[in-house]
Design brief:
Radius of gyration of chain A: 19 Å
Number of strands of chain A: 12
Helix content of chain A: 25-40%
Oligomer: homodimer
Largest sheet of chain A: 6 strands, mixed
Strand content of chain A: 25-35%
Distance between the termini of chain A: 44 Å
Shape of chain A: globular
Largest interface: A-B, 61 and 61 residues
Strand order of the largest sheet of chain A: 8-7-9-10-11-12
């Protein structure tokens, strides 16, 4: 959105037009019932819905999605699943009865995801990571305009295959996951790049899609490092210029 | 936490010890019932509990807190309120029945806060903001060590009165709010500084404490700007070096 602002510099006061990033309260309705509201950027809401359900462990395949419609007047997505979805009732049961109030929805649903080792022979060089991260950062148009979004991407180690932005770092990753599912890409051949910090919640999402590497411009937490090590995920942070810190899974670096 | 990492620079690969920031799942029990789990840094949990309840509109005064104990073995706070708390049943009702699943808890509870105009004659100069922001950034020890936390502060316009850090930008503000309540500081004489981006959720929190100015190193969203303008909050973003963008309430700048 364009807004009138006052820009103050050392010796100057200017009234200018500036662009701020857009935010909407986006509500997901699952099988006719309201599931939750995310604060998000108002684009790629189909990808966000599918990616959120998948990375939270609520669906295990895009084939479970019967249909999905996005209402961009009220910022609601209506998603219906095929009958063979086992987690749906479990989620609502958690939400509406005992589990409710236990935590944020995200924290509740993420424990539907079973811990499993990532056994994957993917290899990548430090030079390629540096190059990819440069391309990744240059792709972020909305960030350059507003400074108000995070970005995430899926890469095969050579190119950026899917690139998304959102005001939320979790949402940006979910949009990437959603588009990858729609395009039927195989996660095991890809790595995830993100501009945002890596908490345990982010690693849980990555565990669900089983990509071998997670690469960030920013810092991880101790829980993220522990979890990454326990599942065999390559976790690289602070990729800036030609430097980077490898927190876990250095064996995938050549 | 100290971890062994591999640091890669242009021509070098080094095995070094590095510090990553700590993360815990922190659960608040309100009047004997589990309310929610926040991912947070493991310090100032009393301040976080009280600040969260207050900035979410669940309590209106620290006098409503009968007692609070922090269990740092299991990362749980037990907080009991005096009987004259009206919002408690409302919150659980929302959580356990119809409102449950409507959104994240935060989004649900924030609408307990009524919109009200901030009418406050506080004034500050751009030079003071620049100086305060410099002090603010230099105060962040955990950030300097780990790069993994946000910081927030309360300032009277001259000095930093309360300073807190957390892996979550919302939590950092809630810790500041909690300590201010414990110390019986009057919010109307203070402004809030934050390292993080400003979404509508953050402005809702600020609305609850009615400080006249919110100052950030980062970007606001369009909803944050609209809300700030509608309640008469001075919102200043991108304070970097001697530059800043005034998005709302320029009349408080002298």
């Amino acid at each position: 959105m364009q807004v009138d602002i006052v820009k103050i510099t050392k010796d100057k006061r200017e009234e200018i037009k500036d662009i701020v990033t857009n935010e909407v309260p986006f509500t997901i309705h699952l099988n006719g019932r309201e599931l939750l509201t995310l604060l998000s950027s108002p684009d790629n809401l189909k990808e966000l819905t599918i990616g959120f359900l998948y990375s939270s462990g609520l669906i295990n395949s895009i084939d479970q999605v019967k249909n999905i419609t996005i209402d961009t007047r009220n910022w609601i997505s209506h998603i219906d699943l095929t009958e063979d979805n086992k987690n749906d009732e479990l989620v609502f049961k958690r939400l509406y009865t005992s589990g409710c109030g236990k935590g944020t929805l995200i924290y509740n649903t993420l424990d539907l995801i079973h811990k499993r080792k990532i056994t994957n022979s993917f290899k990548i060089s430090a030079e390629k990571i540096v190059r990819l991260m440069r391309t990744f950062q240059n792709s972020s148009v909305n960030f350059k305009e507003t400074g108000g979004v995070h970005s995430a991407a899926l890469s095969d180690g050579e190119n950026i295959s899917v690139f998304k932005e959102d005001i939320g770092r979790h949402n940006a990753i979910d949009k990437v996951v959603g588009e990858a599912l729609i395009k039927k890409l195989k996660f095991k051949d890809f790595i995830i790049l993100t501009s945002g910090r890596i908490s345990s919640e982010i690693v849980f999402k990555i565990m669900k899609i089983s990509v071998p590497c997670l690469i960030s411009r920013s810092a991880p937490t101790d829980q993220a490092v522990k979890l990454a090590r326990s599942i065999g995920l390559t976790l690289i942070g602070f990729v800036r210029g030609s430097r980077m810190n490898v927190y876990s899974g250095e064996d995938r670096l050549v």
